[in-house]
Amino acid sequence: MSAAIQPSEQFRQKALLNNDRLHLSAQKDRLGFWEQMAGELEWFKTWNKVLDEENAPYYRWFDGGKLNVSYNCLDRHVNSPRRNKAALIFEPENGTGATYTYYQLYRKVNYFANVLKKMGIGKGARVVIYMPMIPEAVIAMLACVRIGSVHSVVFSGFSAGALETRLNDLQASLLITVDEAYRRGKYIPLMENARAAVDNCKCVEKTMLIKRGSREIELNKKNELWYHELENDIPLYCQPEAMEAEDPLFILYSSGTTGRPKGILHTTGGYLVGVHTTFKYVFDCREEDIFWSTADIGWITGQSYIVYGPLSNGATSVLFEGTPDYPQKDRFWEIIEKYGVTIFYTAPTAISTFMRWGDKWAEKRDLSTLRLLGSVGEPIKPEAWSWYYLHIGKERCPIVDTWWQTETGMIMISTLPGVDKMKPGSAGRAFPGVCVEVVDEKGIPLPAGENGYLVITTPWPAMLRILFNDPERYESTYWQKFCGKFYTGDGARSDEDGYIWILGRVDDVINVSGHRLGTAEIEGDLVEHQAVVEAAVIGKDHQIKGQAVSAFVTLKEGVDGSEELAEELKRYITQKIGAIARPDDIFFATELPRTRSGKIMRRLLRDIAEGRAMGDTSTLLNPEEIETLREQYADESK
Ligand code: PRX
User: Fold this and answer.
1) What are the residue ranges spanned by the domains of the chain?
2) Which residues does ligand 1 sit against, CB inside 6 Å?
3) Could you report the per-residue pLDDT of 21-38, keeping only the tens digit for each?
4) Distance between CA 8 and CA 326 in Å, rounded?
């Protein structure tokens, strides 16, 4: 275990919090604490009860309260000295960026909301946003919540197939997308993906397109519309809908242990209280800060900490469309220098990549405005932590390693930067008002130092409320294993200071570059390929990505495994799900190792893929096969 590091005295002195008062107040009265935090937002009507547990695990927060998220993110700043402060700084992949003040963003959102209304979109309607990282994506999100419709942002790196699954599951009536997107200077025909998906979705009545490119595109008049053509004759102001605290706010899909992605539903009041509070205290948010989260808005980090957390706090948030290595490997550092970013939030996989590229890229840029760094998405290795601390933070900036999930909506475990010492590799303590435990298989809390399962023992405001369309799966995935404690799917241990050390997923979910992928989803797609009979997918340790996808497949009789076929299968998965799910290696096996009860032994496959000595094989039905597999694998990886 590495030594603990104290935040610098300079940071502590100016920090919003430099003592334990928040933790102490939450320990004394957890619900009172959350009630006080809720008081920092503007409500149209106050709640009757902070938490209703009667129908657990269907919890209700701030029941009876009414508010609007877009109002809290925009109107109340527009009615304050923040009116002309930068809300969003947009840095496109290339070309000129744009800054939107709170007032300008407010105007755009009002227009957009009125356009949605004109199209017949109302309260409760489901709208899918399939867009790159451009301001219109944020505007569309805020416009949806202004009128009470429920958005679901689908990561623009997903394929048409993945989009189609989500549109159908949601029974979405509107799709908002763009004509073109770009990545590393290359044109991406997002619109074509959108069309291919919509072709198989009866529910989608209209596709609304934002114009970005200059290519001529012929729209299908029946169901496709340009946003800019609808924008005329639109009233400037759109009254924000007074939403019930428990009205749905958005649905975001995340991978689980079955083939079908989970539609994680967040509601209005509790979610906003959670992200508002955690943004403020974990990132020590000050009026003059420029905050940059490098996540995509298609993931929860983007939703919570590019959009709702920063904007509800009246902060300035950077939105970057591009990638860290285009046109050069100093792109991130160039942006920090250009805008004077003060708080920088990224993923360990990016940090490992920067380490590999060498120190020189960051050295030639001015990073002196930075005062706080953050990490999220996967465990950060102590070496990467130290590199980040030294080369980016120059030993001046504390690092907050924030643990949370799509399901939790908000940061759950993190150090508070002006209060807590940092231990590289550990996320820190549970956030005030959040209670976690590390338990054994039976749900019994384990002493410090022992590895077990991470559970959350009490409800928290930004918790998911249900899996859309699937209450049974909601109960069985999260609440049944440990009888009413929330099962996170992560392994962890605690230490003598109550710090949590995350060990990674313990279920069949793998984490590639901070993105969750279900092994079952990739397997399901692989077996749809005509050459494949069976598939087992595992996450293999990877220096940069944390984990990489490895697939073991058996082939139909008469089909031979070849390099071409492996490439074809990789392409097939890219096309089915998206490039993030592309396997690093495909391994052809004559049989997959199974237990006597017929379960595929993934642990052994992982041992093979990572070249380790094998674990216990006593329960194996076909032990001789595993040796053959290992030999084949060793041959192929030469
Ligand atoms: O395994 C944990 C890992 O990411 C999972 C959640 O993934 P997702 O819902 O996509 O949300 C990612 C961004 C919040 C967790 O179950 N994870 C997230 N943050 C950390 C982490 N693992 C270790 N340390 C973290 N700070």
Assistant:
1) 9-492, 508-636
2) 254, 300-301, 376-379, 401-406, 427, 488-490, 502, 504-505, 511, 516
3) 999 999 999 999 999 999
4) 34
